[in-house]
Amino acid sequence: MQKFEMKFSGPVSLEKTMDIQIPALEWLKEANGKYSKFILNTNVTVSQKNSQTLAFVWDGKRQNRDIELRIKDAFPFLLKDIDVGDNEALKLLQAHYGEIAYMRTDPFRALITTILSQNRTGEITRKVFHKISVHLKGISAKKIIEMPEEELKEIIRSSGPYKANFMQESCKMITKDFSGDLERLVTLDTNEALRELTKLKGVSHKTAACILVYSDMKRDVTPVDTHLGRVVSRIGLVSIKNKSMTRLTQEDISTQLSRIIPDLGYAHLFFVMLGREVCFSKSPECVKCPVAKVCSFRI
């Protein structure tokens, strides 16, 4: 059994880190509070060692430096260390959610995980992603294309069998236009990358933004859904004319936020967490809100 410990610059919460981020859904939640994931065909398990340290273990007689490098790359920094600018609400959110470790993955895995997560809970996505990863012994565009569609539908059924078509058609486009590799695409200028990604079947502005912020770690774009739109509008960070989450509305919200938040791509997690824990669509629990004193909805 091999071990690797990762100490952060401050307190880190494994539970909150693994709550809602797209790369977190690659990790399968276990009953004992641990999470596991296959890295280089090895099952790696992570647990909370102490307030500042996460402990990783995997089978093996020799210390595997490649696995250690993958782990370090997957947890680059804490949200307490990002640049949120001068906005008071953002500073309060950072103080409240700073113990979340930002996560990173490769763009293809981000694409597949995000498609599987559309209109599904995180726990369903975790199980389906793990199931298809084990079945294919590693996810790639080539392997997904080569699967019979009915077989793929059955494997991902709980996530939505119709997504099999999205996945296979997107993989065909990636193979044809990008030689099966999204790494070059995500390094393009943000707007150009968004245009190219949204050409893929089943990929909306939100899905494309997820791919960019969690793989190339773009700072100037954010995934926008009804929940994030509601939260940032209530706080008073944006002005929304169209309440429906059309692509233009999503792009407008992302653009407005990028003007006031330097590290928007990372900071979007503050709004997601706030929407999950406090700022509900109906009956928000304002008395528990960390930004209540500066929130336009509360005031």
What does this structure look like?
Helices cover 47% and strands 11% of the residues. The protein is α+β, with helices and mostly antiparallel strands. The protein has 3 domains: 2-75, TATA-Binding Protein (2-Layer Sandwich), CATH 3.30.310.20; 79-102 and 218-299, Helix-hairpin-Helix base-excision DNA repair enzymes (C-terminal) (Endonuclease Iii, domain 2, Orthogonal Bundle); 107-216, Endonuclease III, domain 1 (Orthogonal Bundle), CATH 1.10.340.30. The protein is globular, with a radius of gyration of 19 Å.
Q: Which characteristics define this entry?
A:
Endonuclease Iii, domain 2; 299 residues; five-stranded antiparallel β-sheet; 11% strand; Endonuclease III, domain 1
Please, what is the oligomeric state? single chain
| β-sheet strand percentage | 5-15%
CATH architecture field of the largest domain = Orthogonal Bundle
The coarse silhouette is globular
How many beta-strand segments? 7
Number of helices: 14
Low-confidence parts: none
According to CATH, what is the class of the largest domain? Mainly Alpha
Class from helix and strand fractions: alpha+beta
Distance between the termini: 55 Å
What's the mean pLDDT score? 93
Number of domains: 3
